């Protein structure tokens, strides 16, 4: 790996974890990134005008990878889910368990690592050590990341309250568990963002390779401990080591430390390693959790998934020039730019929308059960409907994602004493861990305690970083 002298982009994409406006030439006040309070103006922005206003130094590939990774993951969630009703009881299944031959498709559909890759690259483009300390920089990202989560948890709590009043204990349990299950991703992402400032010290390919190998080796050790002790708790370390790998490669991409041809060769080599791990090792084919698995590759992440993140990230680096040509087209860029404005809305709300679609389908006699003839076509049709329905949902709910909240989004101090900054950093790291643990077990039992711990740490971090200036439209 070599350091290139090519100039790196100076502007940050529509980062799902930052409230900073799009860095472009002088804009009219109605520009979509300048004022989230003008949704109609955003929708009237033509593709050609948005393309013309976008700065030439912007790395649009990062925006494309982030949005596509979420869309594919959401489609995958819908495709995998089967639903049956027996004696009035709703039972959820997984098509990958019913049709094991489909599990190999997860090697194409499990592209969530690209979100970590894109997030770290975007953060690297915007990292200015002279302007920010690590903890306070992290809090800026946390403000944007958790803002839509507050609204989502409020909705989940409201639904739970209604179900309790109605006395539907079965649905209370389902919502309490599944309603927060997908938050694991935000917890893991927040913890990886916490490490991004440390990653900025990487200045050459050798250091980058050594750090990635260290994460990979640590993951291997944790997997061995999982295998021989049967204690899955060892795998919790992998939530950090595995997801750090695509983030590290994102940093390397942003700093031009990896040549595309070398990245392509690494992707092919790691793909071969992964095939050997499945053929001769203890790893199962599916890269997502399937009922009955003896050794999950996803919860917690495994060495096989770590290798998969390398394959995906290196392919992204190798194909960046091709992707750049695609996203440079005005109509494509218009869709990508607006989609990124509601990235967290897309992720958080797709399961409730999917539940409504499936429920409506069952009322109409469209049974999604694996025992139903032609159920595959029903799943495909409802998946397409989900993706189309999410467009107006994003249009309606992304305002909550982009509109600053009083007090929470008040201005922060840009610098702080080393001790104070370290405390803020630690509080937000615990917040990420608490969200991850909340998602793992759901709200019942210890979940409420993890929710309380995460909320407390986030609020204390807010108090320690607040400058006193009111929130502004971003």
Automatic annotation (TrEMBL):
Domain spans labelled Acyltransferase: 62-386
Keyword list, A-Z: Membrane, Transmembrane, Transmembrane helix
Transmembrane intervals: 64-85, 105-127, 148-166, 178-199, 206-228, 234-254, 261-283, 303-324, 345-364, 376-397, 422-441, 447-465
A Pfam family that the UniProt record links to this protein: Acyl_transf_3
InterPro entries per UniProt: Acyl_transf_3_dom
GO molecular function: acyltransferase activity, transferring groups other than amino-acyl groups
Signal peptide positions (record): none
The name this protein goes by in its record: Acyltransferase 3 domain-containing protein
Taxonomic lineage: Bacteria, Bacillati, Actinomycetota, Actinomycetes, Mycobacteriales
